[in-house]
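Consider a protein example.
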Amino acid sequence: MINTNSTIEELNALNKNTLMEQLGIEYLEVNEGFVYARMPVNEKTKQPMGILHGGSSLALAETLGSLGSAFIVDLDKNDVRGSHMSANHVRAAMSGWVYAKAVIIHRGRNTHVWNIDIFDEDQQLVSTCRLTNFIIAREGKK
């Protein structure tokens, strides 16, 4: 279960046998309202032209925002579901790692909005993303 006592090792272990493991996403820091992670730019995350695939960036961004919401709600009573994602890809990444910083910008009772910026190893912006999550009360658990 994800909660504020979860260690980075425990959170990374949750990625076993998931898309996050396939993409090589690794959480580096998780705090209330903030998630920091990295993802390799390699044959699993690139598109045929040899640059980071925009879908890989979106998967990274949604992963961070979703984990961030899961980290701050009571998952025994609520589910977190992505509602809307948008992105602007501003620079190509061709090798190494990209690093993503997710910051909550709206923490409502039923919705969370996250801003996720993805940078290359030179701290140059690669993509900037916005994610809206629904926070849904589980039936009978209100």
